[in-house]
Amino acid sequence: MSNTGRQKKLASFNCDQRIWEQFIARCKSNGTTATATLIEFIELYLGDSQDKADAIGGNNLDKRLDSQIKASVEKYLVTSNNSNASPTNETIIAICERLDKLESEFSNESNSNQTTVIDNLANLEQKIEKMTARMTQLAEAIIKIQDYLNNQQKRGQKSYYNNSSFIAHTPRMQPLTEEGLASRLGVSEETVRKERIKLPPPLFVAWCKGKDRAGLGWEFNENTGLYQPVS
Predict the structure, then answer these.
(1) DSSP 86
(2) What Cα–Cα distance (Å) separates residue 213 from each residue in 35, 71, 183?
(3) Residue 178 C-alpha from the chain's centroid
(4) DSSP per-residue string spanning 175-226
(5) In angstroms, rounded to a whole number, what is the distance separating the alpha carbons of residues 111 and 217?
(6) Does the predicted TM-score (pTM) go above 0.70?
(7) pLDDT tens-digit profile of 87-117?
């Protein structure tokens, strides 16, 4: 360092990287900087006499400063036995490492949960597609049954109107109560009521035709509460 004036440039020295990082962190926690603290160390070491610094050789000065600064930094970082002392940087670093570990585990768990959600959505979509296909098949089957019953009904009406003797001699069937229809079909009243509630009207008519001794279909009239014949 020149005698003509002070220059704001620190001498180079060797220091363990871990200790140096701890030293910088401690300086920040004390509201100062590593540079300002080092300058204080150097000024304390040199004292008030500039001649003392001039009397020490250049290389020797670097070595002495290097040794003194490392010793001062290590001493500065030593944890006090006082119970009110603040945690050391080792504790802070350990906490940071644990936080990094927790963050990594949380990230992995989030990725795993995201994968599980995606798989569940894919399975749900497949189930919905299968249900939709099944409902379509059922709807097509019902339409075919209705078409078949309508054709049968039209065919029966045509045959009925073309046969005048049948019109003249066949008495018109009267509506029946649930008890009367059950007796005609050879089943219980509970069975008639159960099938009427369970089956759509066209299928109930077809069911009655299969049970009726004359092959007649029967449908329920909600207004009268009676079962009337369907040809």
Answers:
(1) P
(2) 112, 115, 11
(3) 54
(4) PB-HHHHHHHHTS-HHHHHHHHHHS-HHHHHHHHHHH-TT--EEEEETTTTE
(5) 63
(6) no
(7) 556 677 777 777 778 877 777 776 666 677 7
